[in-house]
Amino acid sequence: MAPKLGYLLPTREQIMEGRPETGPLLDLATRAGALGFDSVWVGDSLTARPRHDPLTLLAGVVGRVPGMTIGTAVLLPMLRNPVILAHQVATLDQLSEGRLILGVGFAADRPNIRAEFAAAGVPFEHRIGRMLEGLRLCKALWSGQPVDWDGRWQTAQAVVAPTPHRAGGPPLWIGGNLQGSLDRAGKFFDGWFPIAPSAADFATGLAHVRNVARENGRDPSSVSGAMYLTVSLDDDAAKADERLNGFLERYYGQPAAATRRRQASYAGPEAGLAAWLAGYTNAGATHLVLRFAGDHERHLAAVAKSRTR
């Protein structure tokens, strides 16, 4: 079965280029839908890598491209009060008529990300526990039943309305490649959504995630496998590689080689892209979310063309 193909909107890139207008982003989402992409995604950051708020922008995408699956790649839920987040997500899921996927992450340990957590008043060292508890509280509130909660947050007979369109709330996917991340994905989440592994490593990691799910009384096939991939296309492979390196260095502020060791990426001609993507499909990925380095219109058209070959 062909994988679902997603497109990451360049929210961070547009801010870096001094172009904060949302119209061009919505135009790109519309173009992706017209070319047959299955979903549109938005990343998240407050101050570390400033960009548009993902939940707000995705509401705009839903209005522009009805029927499109939308997702966060990835949201940092621990930076938000979970009662407010539950309300926002439920409303967005209603807008999308149940087509929202909530990709979440626990944030890398970098000085600018630690500063982001400090700016939000959130202890960085407690981010994983805060994320897991916050998402449990969200799910409780999405039930529509009164919720009593006594933990990091306190509620007494709290009810959030509306509840999500999808019973129980949107699927929750989590990234990460370390042992603890894989275990959490198998125990608690609806999908594993990493950024780093090779296709072979992805197959091994997904097998581990699903084994953990089975050991915890869950249906292993219910845990989706997805990949976040960066793509730079050019008939001249050296130019594609140069463009990818420049993109990553501007985006992350560190040598491209360091980033490429941690993130799966393709730089080369269109002719080789389909086979590279097929490696992840054959490894078990049912969703591929693509981030483009360079001309987005051209990349969208090229990927759509390669998909039909």
Strand order of the largest sheet: 1-2-3-4-7-8-9-11
What helical percentage do the residues reach? 40-55%
> Could you state the CATH homologous superfamily?
Luciferase-like domain
Low-pLDDT sequence parts: none
Distance between the terminal alpha carbons, to the nearest Å? 15 Å
Q: Estimate the global geometry from the Cα principal axes.
A: globular
The helix/strand order is EHHEHEHEHHEEEHEHEHHEHEH
Output the CATH class name: Alpha Beta
Structural class by sheet pairing and helices: alpha/beta
Strand tally is 11
Count of helical regions: 12
Number of domains: 1
Overall average pLDDT: 97
Tell me the CATH architecture.
Alpha-Beta Barrel
The proportion of strand residues reads 15-25%
Write up what this structure looks like.
Helices cover 46% and strands 18% of the residues. The chain has 309 residues and is α/β, with parallel strands linked by helices. It has a single domain (4-307), classed as Luciferase-like domain (TIM Barrel). Strands 1-2-3-4-7-8-9-11 form an 8-stranded parallel beta barrel, surrounded by 7 helices. It has a two-stranded antiparallel ribbon with strand order 5-6. Helix 7 (179-188) packs across helix 8 (199-215), helix 9 packs across helix 10 and helix 11 (270-282) packs across helix 12 (296-307).
Structure keywords:
309 residues; TIM Barrel; eight-stranded parallel barrel; two-stranded antiparallel ribbon; 12 helices; 11 strands
What is this structure, in a nutshell?
With 309 residues, the protein is of the alpha/beta class.
